[in-house]
Design goal:
heterodimer, A: alpha+beta, Ubiquitin-like (UB roll), DNA polymerase, domain 1, 2 domains, B: alpha+beta, Uridine Diphospho-n-acetylenolpyruvylglucosamine Reductase, domain 3, Enolase-like, domain 1, 5-stranded antiparallel β-sheet, 12 helices, 30% helix, globular
């Protein structure tokens, strides 16, 4: 056990927990942020993606001990922002959601990409989303949605 | 009772390591998968664990005395965007894993994990990287090829931490890194290849080749490279068959779930041939 402090969706959190726990399980089980999904469980599919200090990471392979002092944002925390609205609407406009399981991760990946690169090319979008799998294989519409979000949200990122 | 410690400083980490044995976790991108347990249960770490990823003292990249120095907990994504990072290393990082993993993955993790398929390892070998290890007893420096002794085996002592990676600044007129994997992102290499050449006034001044995932450790043979120094570019290209024959006996891959030895060997030698023919 160890004392671990971090910011979760803009709120300070202090836990006395086993630092080996997967961040994914802590977010889902202890905080009930179930928008964070478990897909592959080994960092290859991106369904569990969250932001740590604005950068995308896979919460299924992050030990709780590594988030001490960090700022974590899940899709729930992000969903109250203007940027989320823009990305969400762009996904809806392009029909970029089929079963929806990959969508929280895709939106987190889009946000992480746009944070660093507000005007990505198609190739850069594909690289930015390369760690996220969509098994409905709706990639074309997802890439279009990110393009649309970048255009509509111009100046926000 | 096992201990899980998040050290507040680098010196505390060194002190703890001297008192007891710990498994070191940096980004955890390999270890968390290797120790994975059932869904919704923590990974299995029966031993003490020391979490060093957030040691800010070890997050840096700087230039000093002809070397690029990379602090061991620097995530590789930070190296991708830094002007000091050698071009070849950027090429390897640019096609390794995914942005999410690159925000956590470290070069030191590739060294500690000592997999022959580690993405940055061929680059460390071809750049003659020196690895700086530190313990409370002091600092020692070893070339990368003396650190890794086999698959998952290295000479880093229990009380030591990889402090930094030292890359001698080198000049190449041509260089390449190629990785063959099942998927463009997030794939473990079936084979990787890197080559670097410095040709000045039509004379080969430097010629380096390294392969990943074709032998127990990264394959680099300096005695073979030496044979081709001093040639003109045309002469070097003309000797492509000899070069492939030279490397053939050292390319000894294995069969595993990702590929088989015949495919790996054919591709590895084709990548070598292509690199030289297109210089």
């Amino acid at each position: 056990m160890a004392i671990i402090k971090f910011k979760l969706n803009n709120k300070e959190v202090v836990m006395d927990e086993n630092p080996n726990l997967r961040l994914l399980d802590v977010l889902r089980e202890k905080f009930e942020f179930t928008g964070v999904k478990e897909g592959c469980g080994e960092g290859e599919c991106g369904a569990c993606a969250v932001l740590i200090n604005n950068d995308i990471v896979n919460s299924c392979i992050i030990p709780l001990g590594n988030v001490n002092g960090k700022e974590i944002m899940t899709i729930e925390g992000f969903s109250v922002s203007k940027k989320y609205e823009i990305i969400k609407d762009a996904f809806a406009d392009e029909g970029a959601v089929q079963c929806g399981f990959c969508t929280p991760g895709m939106i987190i990946a889009s946000e992480s990409l746009l944070n660093k690169n507000p005007h990505p090319t198609e190739e850069e979008i594909k690289t930015g989303l390369s760690g996220n799998l969509c098994r409905c294989t709706g990639y074309n519409s997802i890439v279009k949605a990110v393009k649309g979000a970048a255009k509509k949200g111009d100046g926000l990122w | 009772m096992v201990k899980n410690v998040i050290p507040a400083s680098y010196s505390e980490a060194l002190k703890l390591l001297n008192e007891d044995s710990y498994k070191l976790i940096a980004g955890g991108t390999d270890l968390m998968v290797q120790r994975r347990s059932w869904s919704e249960t923590p990974p299995e770490f029966p031993e003490n664990v020391l979490y060093i990823f957030n040691l800010e003292e070890l997050k840096y990249i700087k230039e000093e005395d002809g070397y690029i120095l990379i602090g061991s907990t620097t995530p590789v994504e930070d190296l991708l965007t830094n002007d000091l990072t050698p071009h070849l290393l950027k090429e390897a990082i640019g096609i390794m894993a995914s942005p999410a993993l690159r925000h956590m993955a470290t070069i030191a993790g590739n060294i500690g994990n000592a997999s022959p398929a580690g993405d940055t390892l061929p680059i460390l070998y071809i750049l003659d990287a020196i690895i700086v290890l530190e313990s409370v007893e002091g600092v020692r420096e070893l070339p990368i090829n003396e650190i890794i002794t086999g698959p998952r085996r290295h000479v880093i002592k229990e009380n030591e931490i990889i402090k930094e990676i030292k890359l001698p600044i080198s000049v190449f007129t041509n260089s390449a890194f190629e990785k063959i994997g099942g998927r463009k992102a997030d794939a473990i290499s079936k084979v990787s290849f890197t080559g670097a050449v410095n040709i000045k006034d039509d004379k080969v001044l430097d010629f380096r080749i390294a392969f990943g995932a074709v032998s127990a450790t990264i394959l680099r043979r300096k005695e073979l490279e030496q044979k081709y120094i001093g040639l003109t570019k045309e002469e070097l290209i003309g000797k492509v068959d000899d070069i492939v024959v030279d490397y053939d006996p050292f390319v000894r891959p294995i069969d595993d779930q990702r590929s088989n030895k015949e495919y790996r060997k054919t591709v590895a030698l084709n990548l070598l041939r292509n690199f030289i023919e297109t210089l």
